[in-house]
Design brief:
The chain is an all-beta fold. It is 0% helix and 54% strand.
């Protein structure tokens, strides 16, 4: 059974940082591209960042310079380091693993508010 489990969300003040983690089981994580997406209330799910199996990264313009995606294939875990957080970053963040098949985590809430 494939599972992607996100953690690390929470409440943070504007300008603060959070690191999200996504731990995979049931798949050969190293061959999967991994991505982080987010969905704010009333909005469509949008791409935040992706990282290929080879480590190439891609970021949405809103994330460039503030967020860093990475992965540890030994730990079967992907990460999203988020710095300089803004209220508009408030959303449920989902991780995704794709390699022909596609899998999603259950999401973790990130709230940026003073």
């Amino acid at each position: 059974q494939v599972q992607l489990v996100e953690s690390g969300g929470g409440l943070v003040q504007p300008g603060g940082s959070l690191r999200l983690s996504c731990t995979a089981s049931g798949i050969i994580f190293s061959i999967y591209a991994m991505g982080w997406y987010r969905q704010a209330p009333g909005k469509q799910r949008e791409l935040v960042a992706t990282i290929t199996s080879g480590g190439s990264t891609n970021y949405a313009s809103s994330a460039k310079g503030r967020f860093t995606i990475s992965r540890d294939n030994v730990k079967n875990t992907g990460y999203l380091q988020m710095n300089s957080l803004k209220p508009e970053d408030t959303a449920v963040y989902y991780c995704n693993a794709a390699s022909g098949f596609e899998f999603w985590g259950q999401g973790t809430q990130v709230t940026v508010s003073s």
